[in-house]
Amino acid sequence: MSPLPWYVEGGRLNRRSFLRGTGVCLALPWLESIPIRAESGKKASQPALGVPPVRLGVLYFSNGVEPQHWWAKSRQGTMELGPGLKPMERHIKDFTFLRGLFNESAVKHASPHLGRMPNLLSGAWVSTEQSDIRVGKTMDQVLAERIGGESVIPSMILGIEPTELRLEDGLSMLYGSNISWRSDTQPAMKEIYPARIFDLLVGDGKGRQLDRSILDNVRNDAKTLRKQIGKTDQQKLDEYLDSIRDVEKRINLSSQEQRLEGWRPSISEPNISRPDDALPQDVPTHMKLMLDLIVLAFQMNKTRITTCMLNNDLSQMNFGFLEGVKGSLHLDLTHNGRDPVMEAMYLKTNQFHTQQFAYLIDRMKSIDEGGSSLLDNSMMVFCSNLFDGDRHQADHMPILLAGRGGGSLEPGQILDFQDRGDENRRACSLYLSLMDRMGVTLPGFGDTTRRLIGI
């Protein structure tokens, strides 16, 4: 009798299984049989010859805004901004202020945070079962699936705070730690270490080489393992192997010159130094590094799609580095019971987050791509899942949309959808409109089939 496979112990599958090959050992995902599936997409149309590609970025901040200070008004032909948006005053011609957009499933959800955050970019319902992590595939990952193969990195998912695994409101903090979801059941996990992002963009700073034949080495083990596990776990195994294939594709692409015919990125080598290996302990420095890396990725045409979480939902970030902010974590400041002192500090955190977006816009405006700026060729969304964080208000979200989308957007506007009826103010209508401009046209997405009026 032939010996049992190495991942079987005492006639049963080993719960801590690995796929192994020559010189390679890969940890498997958790499989129920050991005590999630991508959609096919269509190819986006290529940009015109000599025209830079359109990029999409989402910058998220948690727990909403201090409501009385977050507004924009049209006055004498220009845009007047409330105190919460003061850092964007120099960019009033570069962004559109969107009011009234919402996700219906978020409004109806019983969980005031985790039922209103992971569906930010999908409009999907969040599962209330602890054993069933489930939310919708997000707009950025739909794009990554369909056009991500046109760049080295299909999408870049960044953050500042680590992914949390504790429970909150009886739900997993996976929901509060991720705005990008690769499938209904799998978050596209974010990277919080700047050095790792830099290495992803320009190659490993220490000279390590990723194995180009990982799948070849583990394929036989995977084939045998499939026979030992149930259908649900087979699906998880397939998704796991797909993620490794994505790595292999990226490795292959990185050895090729990636450019559109008649257009070249403005730089081919990094113009910033490699960050230290350690995680930055200073929040402003950490955020600035991540934003610089977004600019670098777009400028080198390494990716065209990125999301970045400035903090997690229910964030424990301490904003004591801001003048006048003392003694409270971000979550406490946002849940202030209308205490005037706390509200004033909450406003300062809003201004700080807005300052990060303004910095990103500054950087992108300064980069020329042959008569147009990097910002001109991008669509940058700045948003939160709640409006009034103290009230957990989700019936409309704070959203700014910056950039010209390659000439298809007209910034400098105020678009108010608050009184247009629910069917005309879906956040997913905005996402359909943005995906159109990335070359991906869908009949519907999330909770709507309509494009956003005025975008």
Key phrases:
455 residues; alpha/beta; Alkaline Phosphatase, subunit A; seven-stranded mixed sheet; two-stranded antiparallel sheet; 15 strands; 13% strand; globular; disordered N terminus
Summarize the structure.
The chain has ten helices and 15 strands.
Describe this structure in words.
This protein is α/β, with parallel strands linked by helices. Helices cover 27% and strands 13% of the residues. It has a 7-stranded mixed β-sheet with strand order 9-12-5-13-14-8-15, with helices on both faces. Helix 5 packs antiparallel against helix 6. The relative contact order is 0.21.
What is the topological layout?
Layout: E1 8-9, E2 12-13, E3 18-21, E4 24-27, E5 55-60, E6 72-75, E7 78-81, E8 95-99, H1 104-108, H2 139-147, E9 156-159, E10 167-168, E11 171-172, H3 174-177, H4 194-202, H5 214-226, H6 231-254, H7 283-299, E12 305-309, H8 330-334, H9 340-365, E13 378-383, E14 399-402, E15 414-416, H10 427-437
Parallel strand pairs: 5-12, 5-13, 8-15, 9-12
Antiparallel strand pairs: 1-2, 3-4, 6-7, 8-14, 10-11, 13-14
